[in-house]
Design goal:
Layout lengths: L4 H20 L1 H4 L7 H7 L10 E5 L5 H9 L5 E5 L3 H7 L7 E4 L6 H7 L5 E6 L8 H14 E11 L5 H8 L3 E5 L6 E7 L4
Parallel strand pairs: 1-2, 1-4, 2-3, 4-5
Antiparallel strand pairs: 5-7, 6-7
The site of S-adenosylmethionine has 23 residues, from helix 2 and helix 4.
Length: 198
């Protein structure tokens, strides 16, 4: 991708906005930096561009991973994007793509929103939710909802900066595949769990 000076200026503005929101709402954001390109690529590696998938993204921030998801999705797919922070949702609205349904609400309310669109289960859930800083009961509520909202054989994909939390996903989904992403600041991990596979 070739960048011009206006792309560069936009990217810097987004980084500053994300940093400002992180400082104001650290208990919801859990980080002060957005995911870098290597992390975004790893998060979308299980998407097959030939298949029309229904995908949920949780904790989209300013849409940095959202753009990578959309670039890999087939034309008839649908992407339900959940982000609780209204200021960051405003940044996401820059993305003009009819496959994206942006929902300014918590992941814990995903069932109500999917129902409105006539969807019961999805093929994939891609999450950057900061479970390490969210209350334990909310974390468990969201993860159980993810499990029941995923089709059998569907993927739950989650990023973190520490590896030991993978045990929590193994307990819920019965399996977890861990990938290390060294070229991110800070380096991190992507956990992929296949629903229904023990
Ligand atoms: C670590 S940031 C990830 C941002 C971006 N996806 C990235 O990878 O750089 C986590 C995001 O989750 C959002 N968030 C926190 N709790 C949430 C919830 N219950 N439902 C939806 N989004 C939530 C925060 O506002 C924040 O934007």
């Amino acid at each position: 991708m070739l960048w011009n000076s206006s792309d560069f200026k936009n990217d810097v503005l987004k980084k500053v906005k994300f940093l400002w929101q992180s400082i104001r709402n650290f208990k919801e954001m859990g980080t002060v930096v957005r995911s870098g390109p290597a992390m975004c690529r790893k998060m979308v590696q299980n998407i097959h561009p030939e298949t029309d998938l229904n995908i949920i993204e949780l904790g989209a921030g300013d849409g940095v991973i959202t753009r990578y998801i959309l670039s890999k999705m087939a034309p008839e797919g649908k992407l339900f994007v959940f982000e609780i922070n209204p200021e960051l949702c405003e940044v996401i609205t820059d993305i003009q793509d009819s496959r994206m349904i942006l929902i300014n609400d918590g992941a814990q309310n995903m069932a109500i929103h999917l129902q409105k669109h006539g969807i019961e289960k999805v093929d994939m859930i891609i999450s950057a939710l900061p479970f390490l800083v969210l209350p334990d009961d909310l974390t468990q509520e969201i993860l159980q909802l993810c499990k029941s909202t995923l089709k059998s054989g569907g993927y739950f994909i989650q990023m973190h900066y520490i590896k030991s939390i993978s045990k929590m996903y193994k307990t819920i989904f019965g399996n977890v595949h861990t990938s290390y992403v060294p070229l991110n600041i800070p380096p991190g991990y992507v956990f992929s769990c296949k629903n229904g596979e023990i």
